[in-house]
Design a protein that fits this description.
Blueprint: H1 2-8, H2 12-134, H3 141-246, H4 257-285
Helix pairs in contact: 3-4
């Protein structure tokens, strides 16, 4: 504040120089601050580059470690697969060993059984040799065995033929029984049908007899009615002719009995009136 008061009492030139000096000082301070800022910025850049470098080194280290882990996992997987394959192969070999041991034991058993069979068949060999000594038609054991095989084959053929014949016989017997049963059922069915038809025939004959009796009765009634009709027609025709011959009225020559009866009725009515009048006139004379 006193410095300011002093500047107020100095000349303008001095004040200008003082202002310039102050501006120069401020400019220097700004330049120093700028250089300090650039220096710090450079330090910061170097630190940033160092951090970036360390970060890259750390990333590369992590990548190498990840590859190391992957390689270890791959090696472990291959080792585990190899160990599993070796265990599986060992189990297969153990199973093969057990199968071979079982096959070996089975072959030993077969060998023993074969030896027993051979030893047992030696008696048959001796027996066949004895047979060759007795039978003159066979010179070798193979001839005797071939003859036996032929006879056995023939016997088998005969047995098979016999079985086939028995099978065919059984089939024929079954078919015959089924056919007999079928025909018996058909005969029973036909007998039932015949019995039913006989009953229907008897009923039809009975109905026909009744119908014939009714027909005869109807014919008798019709003949009687025809006879009566003929008699009535003859009587009406006779009476009509008698009435016509005695009547003074000229009547047509009717042939219909109803017309004739009408004429006869009129004639009888007229005759009745005449008789009635005659009787009335006769009483009056008396």
């Amino acid at each position: 504040m006193p410095h300011t008061l002093v500047l107020e009492h100095v000349s303008p030139a001095t004040r200008l120089l003082e202002k310039r000096r102050q501006m120069f000082e401020v400019q220097e301070a700004l330049e120093q601050q700028k250089q300090e800022f650039f220096r710090k910025e450079e330090v910061f850049k170097r630190r940033e580059e160092g951090l970036k470098k360390k970060d890259l080194e750390l990333q590369e280290s992590l990548i190498r470690f990840s590859k190391f882990l992957q390689e270890n996992d791959s090696k472990r997987t291959r080792a585990e697969k190899k160990a599993a394959d070796e265990i599986k192969l060992r189990h297969q070999k153990e199973a093969e060993i057990e199968q071979l041991n079982a096959a070996h034991a089975e072959e030993k058993l077969k060998k023993k059984n074969t030896s027993d069979v051979v030893e047992k068949n030696m008696s048959y060999q001796k027996y066949l040799e004895t047979v060759l000594d007795v039978a003159d038609e066979y010179h070798e054991i193979n001839d005797l065995l071939m003859r036996y095989a032929t006879l056995e084959a023939t016997n088998n053929d005969l047995r098979n033929h016999s079985k086939e014949c028995e099978h065919k016989t059984e089939e024929t017997r079954t078919k015959t029984q089924a056919y007999s049963k079928k025909k018996t059922d058909e005969i029973l069915n036909f007998n039932n049908i015949i019995s039913r038809l006989k009953k229907e025939l008897e009923q039809r004959e009975l109905d026909a007899s009744v119908f014939q009796q009714e027909k005869d009765q109807a014919l008798l009634v019709a003949s009687q009615k025809t006879l009566e009709h003929g008699q009535v027609c003859m009587a009406s025709d006779n009476l009509f002719h008698r009435c016509v011959t005695r009547s003074k009225v000229n009547h047509p020559a009717y042939t219909n009995p109803m017309d004739q009866l009408g004429v006869i009725g009129d004639w009888i009515s007229d005759l009745g009136l005449i008789v009635k009048q005659w009787r009335t006139s006769g009483k009056s004379q008396w």
